[in-house]
């Protein structure tokens, strides 16, 4: 017994003594904290000075200055005085209706388990009173308050959501960055005086569970000094045991290095990847920030959002759903409605999402629009079939699940006549769906069948098992 105790103590000591060095081999060996994979759903918030013109997209300044979109120049000529500059928008970033407690309530009702707030986009304006962004931050101009700190406090006080921060590594028009760029990124004046000090300040001051980096495509991770920061984050920071990061740390790191992979915006591989990943996508199909001229057809429907959720989680990813608040600090009603509707769906069907793992099959081999997840419960292994379309003729043919004499099929949220089934002639199963009245129908978008006792529900193909092991470190 004593020997076992000593061995356990030595093992615990070895775990605590793990030290990550500033190289990708070491940094990539850090296991991803389990809370992130189990969470499955997050909320992205794009908010900044770009929320004032709220026209085009959050890239307004860049597209206007470079004349990438002639419509922006016309918009400015028609609505603003001559010689108006982008900096003149900042005092109009008023946030007078910003109520962090209300935001926290909306995000909590969405069913998400974490949020990621844009603390600084490529425009360089910091939503917190950064010591490294003089007169271009939310305390000195515009809202005159700490937007980041206020939301962090509300989230932690009113919810159990994890709080995360987005931060851009570069700024479009910062003189020091432009000079580093002109020097072929052989100098690092911008990184040493702006990027890194801001990141250390954000982590030390707000203790985020996610550091979501962006603006990586301009230069390598060596220029941005990313590996040194991550080594500090994993070894010494106040969130070293819980924090997760993405893969945008230099133009050589996407889909290769980091905690979870973003790869690209709206990333939807449709297949299981050998690494934990995230699909960051927008409710507005054309912008991350709020647009005053958004049309209803520009907003993703709930059917489309549930499809993205099912596809993403089935393939081992997390879904990060973005909304863009107004310059006044409001989350527009259409965004709030979508988030609350998503929460209603997850309140009923969340067992097929939260804490699940990819199954042997990600989507069905016979019927399109059916995606699978799996979970080990107290009753045994369970497979969930997420149906994006209601079957015609009350008959559903599935090619992937193989039934046994112990198989049980239930529709989550439905308490009426039991479902029956038989083996398919060529394998799989044919499920007979009873007539369900309108008032018995569990929801309007996406339905989940719980499949228990399948002969292959505990079977994980070697390829899938290998990928799962890589995902789990």
From TrEMBL:
Domain Alpha-L-fucosidase C-terminal intervals: 362-452
Keywords (A to Z) from UniProt: Glycoprotein, Glycosidase, Hydrolase, Signal
Function: Alpha-L-fucosidase is responsible for hydrolyzing the alpha-1,6-linked fucose joined to the reducing-end N-acetylglucosamine of the carbohydrate moieties of glycoproteins.
Protein name: alpha-L-fucosidase
Signal sequence coordinates: 1-17
Site (May be important for catalysis): 280
Family: Belongs to the glycosyl hydrolase 29 family.
GO cellular component, one term: lysosome
Domain of life: Eukaryota
Pfam family membership, one: Alpha_L_fucos
GO terms, molecular function: alpha-L-fucosidase activity
Record-annotated Glycoside hydrolase family 29 N-terminal domain positions: 16-351
EC number, as in UniProt: 3.2.1.51
Quaternary structure, from the entry: Homotetramer.
SMART domains to which the protein is assigned, alphabetical: Alpha_L_fucos (SM00812)
Alphabetized InterPro entries for the sequence: FUC_metazoa-typ, Fucosidase_C, GH, Glyco_hydro_29, Glyco_hydro_29_CS, Glyco_hydro_29_N, Glyco_hydro_b
Higher taxonomy: Eukaryota, Metazoa, Spiralia, Lophotrochozoa, Mollusca
Enzyme category, top tier: hydrolase
């Amino acid at each position: 017994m004593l020997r076992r105790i000593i061995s356990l103590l030595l093992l615990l000591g070895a775990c605590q003594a793990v030290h990550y060095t500033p190289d990708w081999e070491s940094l990539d060996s850090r296991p991803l904290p389990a809370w992130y994979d189990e969470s499955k759903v997050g909320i992205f918030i794009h908010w900044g000075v770009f929320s004032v013109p709220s026209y085009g997209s959050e890239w307004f300044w860049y597209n206007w200055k470079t004349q990438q979109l002639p419509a922006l120049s016309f918009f400015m000529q028609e609505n603003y005085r001559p010689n108006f500059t982008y900096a003149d928008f900042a005092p109009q970033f008023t946030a007078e209706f910003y109520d962090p407690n209300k935001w926290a309530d909306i995000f909590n009702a969405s069913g998400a388990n974490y949020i990621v707030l844009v603390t600084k986009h490529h425009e360089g304006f910091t939503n917190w009173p950064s010591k490294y962004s003089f007169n271009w931050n939310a305390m000195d101009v515009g809202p005159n308050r700490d937007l980041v700190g206020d939301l962090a406090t509300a989230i932690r006080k009113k919810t159990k959501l994890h709080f995360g921060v987005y931060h851009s590594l570069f700024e479009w028009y910062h003189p020091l960055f432009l000079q580093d760029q002109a020097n072929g990124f052989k100098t690092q004046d911008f990184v040493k005086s702006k990027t890194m000090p801001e990141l250390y300040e954000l982590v030390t001051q707000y203790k985020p569970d996610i550091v979501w980096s962006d603006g990586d495509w301009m230069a390598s991770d060596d220029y941005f000094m990313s590996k040194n920061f991550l080594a500090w984050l994993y070894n010494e920071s106040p969130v070293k045991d819980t924090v997760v990061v993405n893969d945008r740390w230099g133009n050589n790191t996407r889909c290769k290095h980091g905690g979870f992979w973003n790869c690209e915006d709206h990333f939807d591989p449709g297949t299981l990847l050998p690494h934990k990943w995230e699909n960051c996508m927008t409710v507005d199909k054309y912008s991350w920030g709020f647009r005053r001229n958004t049309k209803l057809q520009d907003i993703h429907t709930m059917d489309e959002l549930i499809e993205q959720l099912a596809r993403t989680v089935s393939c081992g990813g997390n879904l990060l759903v973005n909304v863009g608040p107004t310059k006044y600090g409001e989350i527009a009603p259409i965004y709030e409605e979508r988030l609350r509707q998503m929460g209603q769906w997850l309140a009923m069907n969340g067992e097929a999402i939260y804490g699940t793992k990819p199954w042997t099959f990600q989507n069905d081999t016979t019927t399109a629009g059916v995606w699978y997840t799996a979970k080990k419960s107290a009753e045994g292994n369970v497979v969930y079939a997420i149906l994006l379309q209601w079957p015609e003729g009350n008959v559903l043919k599935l090619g992937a699940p193989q039934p046994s004499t112990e198989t049980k099929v239930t529709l989550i949220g439905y308490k009426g006549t039991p479902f029956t089934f038989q083996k398919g002639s060529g394998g799989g199963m044919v499920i007979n769906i009873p007539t369900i009245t309108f008032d018995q129908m569990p929801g309007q978008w996406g339905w989940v069948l719980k499949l228990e006792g399948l002969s292959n529900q505990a079977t994980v193909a070697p390829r899938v098992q290998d990928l799962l092991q890589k995902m789990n470190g």
